[in-house]
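Teaching assistant here, posting this on the class forum so everyone can see the example we discussed in section. The complex has two components, and the goal was to see what a joint structure prediction looks like when all of them are supplied at once.
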Amino acid sequence: MKQQQPGTSSLSGEDAERLAFREAVRTAAPTWPGIFAWGMVVGLAMTKSGLTVWQALGMTLLVYAGSAQLAVLPLIAAGAQLWLIFFTALVVNLRFLIFSAVFAPHFMHLERKRKLLYGYLCADLAMAFFPRRFPESAGPATGKAGYFTGIVYPNWMAWQSGSVVGIVLATRIPDSWGMAFAGSLAMLGVLIPLIVNSAALTGVVVASLAAVLGADLPYRLGLVLATVLGMVAAMLADRLSLRLGRGGRV
Amino acid sequence: MSDLEIWVAIGLMTLATILTRCSFFFLGSAERLPEPVKHALRFAPAAALAAIIAPDLLLDADKAVHIDFSNYRLLAAVAATLFFLWRGQLLGTIIVGMAAFTVLRLVF
């Protein structure tokens, strides 16, 4: 896997970054169709929920966070208050705090504009590949920027092109096909690999139950409540299993 | 919602993306959070996703709990889950789930 140890390359810096970029592209390419489909589903869902084409294009190009977009669409359709939309997007995006905590030490030396760009592009796929390639955390090293951009640039393009296709096609797809259900299926496919141990499973079960029981709460507050309850339940279950000496950490 | 309100909502969502994704790029040390918070945060993605999906799979249009063989979404989600556990492939999982849902809807 690691032909190119960072910092040991005899190549010029620019060539090394280009090689790292290509290596990342090769590694991440099999995920592009999935990202495209996922983008398409969110594109469909945006138009189906009643956004105009321009609003939907604006949302995908600016927000670039599929789960948050899907979570907010019913709120917009129901005319929820803006603070709740903002809060829901924040809560659904909470995982990005963790991503950010993982990626920031690699890129702290970059100038402000580049940090903003790299942070903004830290989508789920970056998390899936980058920490595996550069397990050591701190500081600058040859190939990091190339490898990172080799994942996140094509990922952005696959997502956005899927989204645009979904937005354009949406009016030709009848509601009875249940395409929005494809969004739930895509999230299911993202969720399952996150259930890495019994603690995570506990969190998922508790969050699911709480979300179902709290579905009648106004403004989908049940979503927020369920997320917090699920997180706390998972943490407690993890502590318990660690104390019992058979725990695996995430 | 008016057009303006929707654009404000899009702006706020963009802000939510930037605040979360860029947070530690500008905050400095990621180690300052209390340990239990960091610990619970590790489970945030799974909990949030489950909280989003569960009502869609387990409730009917009137928000009543609906768990039996006439809930095609739930059955299709089970088929999709089995496929994912078998092949570990996101695209195929969506296709299998949608195919199952469509067949159930048209046949029964």
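For the discussion questions: Chain A is about 70% helix and 0% strand. Residues 144-169 of chain A form the longest helix (26 residues). Think about how each of these relates to the inputs above.
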